[in-house]
Amino acid sequence: MPFSNLGLSIPLLKALVEQKYTQPYPIQQQAIPAILDGKDILGIAQTGSGKTASFVLPILQQLQDGGSTKNRHVRVLVLVPTRELAIQVNDVFTALGTNLPQPIKTMAVYGGVSINPQMIGMQGVEILVATPGRLLELISTNAVSLSAIKTLVLDEADKMLNLGFQEEMKKVISFLPKNRQNLLFSATLSEDLNNINRNLLRNPVVIKVEEEEKNLDLIKQFGYSIAEEKKGPLLRYILKQQKIKQVLIFTSSVHRADAVALKLNQNGIDAFAIHSKKSQLGREEALKFFKEGKVKVLVATDLMARGIDIKFLPYVINYELPRSPKDYIHRIGRTGRAESSGEAISLISPDEEHHFKVIQKKMGKRVTMIDGNAINLKGY
Ligand code: AMP
């Protein structure tokens, strides 16, 4: 089914062509007509499913129907767990709204940066993408009012709860008018989330998009058995031998992410670390340079990596294994997305061997192992 069958306007269809979205993803096929119809939505979907465009497109279309806004009274609120996701979602609104005859002002607000420019920038904003804490600050200073909200989106709601935003979410919801459309997206459902759903959603259309199993088949997986102290040289060997141009490297701690990036830089390989202890500006810059191909290596912790959306990531390297098999699948799922193949490489120290076997069993796939200790790493 083409996008043109979903009831979207010509300017939106034009933007889709420009963005090279040829066919709607399953979640878009289901969500777009339902949202245009005014229904509430419960979408169980991961990053990568196309969930963002599934709410961005119908929201942009609905706002075209007019209805003037009082200044600082936003009409759409998208609540997100992280700054990275806020920026990403805002970018999708901008990209897909680019051809609209009546431009719609959207803005992303999040903590960790000065609040003043956000307060000033709120003039004329119709769609606000916000993290909960900063939004509450803006409300308390009267920089924004939620009393005219027509549509509420909770994006990655499970992550918002995991990050401890439950009280903030409740408080934000208490500022909203009763009559509104609610769209809730989450990768998983939990008891806590079900409680929120029950209070929030009215007779929702439930859309469930399973994580694509077949995706794993697109990913070539290798493991190198290697002594812990030789992981650094082996990493540099792999990066150089395979002439890797863009790679996301996972570590399990902030400290290790910094150490790995530092060592790579000392060895002439441009690398940035991205994690929760980095400044907001540092994180944004690292992501921007990585996306533009100016930096080829990004070293990240799991939490940070979730928000990174890059269309095609050819390589993922696990410098250390994650604790849960689910996280492993998440990590390697960053490559081989959208029908392009990718490669996932794991560096396995003797201490991690047993855990790697458990991961393979849970995943239902065996990973080809290479003896890294037999490789001559002199000079790396
Ligand atoms: P999301 O799950 O919203 O983070 O989207 C995942 C990725 O898929 C993003 O890079 C989008 O730009 C891309 N995408 C979303 N919908 C489509 C589509 N219909 N065709 C091609 N790419 C898409």
Characterise this structure.
The protein is built from 16 helices and 14 strands. The protein has 380 residues and is of the alpha/beta class. It folds into 2 domains: 206 residues, Rossmann fold, CATH 3.40.50.300; 161 residues, 3-Layer(aba) Sandwich (Rossmann fold). Strands 3-4-2-5-6-1-7 form a 7-stranded parallel β-sheet. α2 packs parallel to α3, α3 crosses α4 and α15 crosses α16. It is elongated, with a radius of gyration of 22 Å. It starts with 9 loop residues before the first helix and ends in a 9-residue tail after the last strand. The model has no long low-confidence stretch (mean pLDDT 91).
Provide a compact summary of the structure:
This protein has 16 helices and 14 strands. By secondary structure, it is α/β, with parallel strands linked by helices.
What is the CATH third-level topology name of the largest domain?
Rossmann fold
Beta-strand share of residues: 15-25%
Instruction: Give the cofactors and ligands.
Output: adenosine monophosphate
Tell me the domain tally: 2
For the biggest β-sheet, the strand order reads 3-4-2-5-6-1-7
End-to-end separation: 52 Å
> How many beta-strand segments?
14
Query: What is the H/E order?
Result: HHEHEHEHEHEHHEHEHEHEHEHEHEHEHE
Overall, the morphology is: elongated
Gyration radius from CA atoms, angstroms? 22 Å
Are there runs of 5+ residues with pLDDT below 50, and where?
none
What is the share of helical residues?
A: 40-55%
CATH homologous superfamily placement of the largest domain: P-loop containing nucleotide triphosphate hydrolases
Number of helices: 16
What structural class should be given to the helix and strand makeup? alpha/beta
Return the CATH architecture of the largest domain.
3-Layer(aba) Sandwich
